[in-house]
Amino acid sequence: MVIETLSPGADLPIARTIADLRGIVNDWRRQGFSVGFVPTMGALHEGHLALVAEALRQADRVVTSVFVNPTQFAAHEDLATYPRREARDAELLAGAGCHLLYAPSVEEMYPAGAVTRITVGDTETGGPSQTLEGAARPQMFGGVALVVTKLLNQVQPDVAVFGEKDWQQLAVIRRMAVDLDMPVRIVGVPTARDGHGLALSSRNAYLSETELEVARRLNGILAEAAITAASGASIAAVEAEAASALLAQGFARVDYVAIRQPDLASFENDRVDGPGRILAAAVLGTTRLIDNMAV
What we know:
It is built from ten helices and nine strands. The chain has helices at 18-30, 46-58, 86-96, 106-109, 133-136, 140-155, 167-179, 209-215, 218-230, 235-249, and strands at residues 14-15, 35-40, 61-66, 100-102, 159-163, 185-189, 253-260, 277-284, 287-294.
């Protein structure tokens, strides 16, 4: 077994291979420990650390993965420039109490000859992947489903923790875990926000100071729209008004503003008649921001 740390004084072990990961997890199992898992793409912030904290509440030992997954990026997207800060990530995870960093290479995750793909729903069966982000970024959820399935199979945790900022992704993963009889509890953690209410995201690092000021208006517009929709207003009208407000505030493009049931199904009769979620994706400069909140 080859386990490393990023500095001689570091106390967070790093596994680079599936074999080394499983060796450590199997040892934990022999000691009777439960295992929690937090999958990430790195460039960690307080939102990720909140996921680690929840995993520590749910399990005796916690693995966090850092892997920028190429299968969920389209050719024109930011795979090459996505922030990579492994040494800093390891330092943050050690401080948060994480027990193991799993940082595989692309070759370890997708060895030569790998051809399997996973689809969570399609145009015939429907499902949470077939709308919103699934329409705007059609390659993404297939890539997410594949990498999360592989990671869950590699770690074999009792519980896996995800952030609610990616609400649709969480819905897709929950559906997939049920459909594939995965022996893992999927736990969602509320979105972490800065002092202005902006959802924390690794991609926020792309924003200039001027763009950051505009970005911080997103959550307020969604909150107002959620209140209006909950009062019985037309969903279509609320969605349109919120999209117009985002454009008026300086966003270059709005991919969608949508009010849906928690499982992403549409409300009937153009009115909110139960628990709901308002979700949005908008572009500011070169950065695409997503957010959501309860209705």
